[in-house]
Amino acid sequence: MSRASHSSRRQFLAQSAAAVGGSLATPYIFTAAAKAQQAAASDRPVIALIGCGGQGRWDMAWAKQHADVAAVCDVDSRHAEEAKKVAGGKADVTDDYRRILDRKDVDAVIIATPDHWHTKIAIEAMQAGKDLYCEKPVTLTIDEGKKLCKVAKDTGAVFQVGTQQRSDTSLRFLQAVALVRSGRLGKIKQVSCAIGSADQSGPIPAVSPPPELNWERWLGQAPLVDFRFQDNPYKSRCHYEFRWWYEYSGGKLTDWGAHHVDIAIWALELYKTGPLAVRAVHHKHPVPFKDGYPTLDDQYNTATEFLIEADYPEVKVIIRHDTDNGVLFEGETGRIFVNRERLTGKPVEEMAENPLPEQAIVDVYKGKPVVDHMTNFFNCLKSREEPVSDIFSHHRALSTCHLANIAMRLDREIKWDPEKEEVIGDEQAQSFVAREPRKGYGISV
Fold it and tell me: At what angle do helices 32-39 and 373-383 cross, to 10 degrees?
């Protein structure tokens, strides 16, 4: 995510949170039913934050409207102390998330670590009886998603993924989904997700990690390597920039793809299956690759340019770095474009004379009046219902992003069995569906 798009994301989240105050006049938000649902709680749950960077602190500040914060955890003590301040100064501080999962007073956890830590902590949290709000992208591999779905089903945990566009209180994304599902565009033939280009770095020097950071613990399941950092211009192998390294994330495909591809898959209800084939029509990496792995280890390595085609039985999903950031749905009788600033197209204009029924939005939002994403999570803690951004559908959407990365890394088309969730006829590609963790950081399911 570029600095500009990072700011756009922050602005979107801030607008969503501000809507809690009732500033948006719409029949879909904070109806009497929604207010009654919120007022039903007679006590406040106790939560803890695991991963105290900027996104984690923002999530916790949002969650404080609904819950009390008992503890914060981070392997960077500076981040943990900042989070303690946001929590009100009384939260316990630890650098070991297991101490939080051992606590009987903690009802739910917010997980906002780097991506490669999400699954292990989420699984152990559910096994410890906790509900969870986990930032996107939830997984590093497709196999991790399969494990998360199994444990979520086995434990019955309430699991909200931090894909806030599903609770967009401006209603742009929800109206777009409702327009698609109600047939206002006719049969959808193609949907394009433009997610922007990734950062590049050039060689970054190896230096000693700062004293406040436990670098070995930060690496977790990933290989033990040198800490890399430069100040001007700022480049790093840690914190925010982890997303540009395949060792810890999936670049733009899982950063913004977890938002826009998620909306495309959700709107078309393609989470009930998966693509049959995924190919990289065009792609560019900042470093050379051999057998799917970067040959240089001192600089960002995720794809900076890409044009991906994912073939579903009756529709093609395109993922690209160029064109205007957003999602373009193209049907036989109409097309619409949606992003965080606008919803456009003739079917949108026609709503002035033929508005969507209120129930169409409610149905998209799983039969509930629309609230902000964190409120939806805490409402579901009380009702024990599935939140709007459930792990099962998110796993399927993110699998398409992971397959796109595999296709780019190996530079060939990937055939996929959506029922077995396995690559067809390509052992090397199948080996990228899972990843061997470093000793001591395995996941037990």
Answer: 60
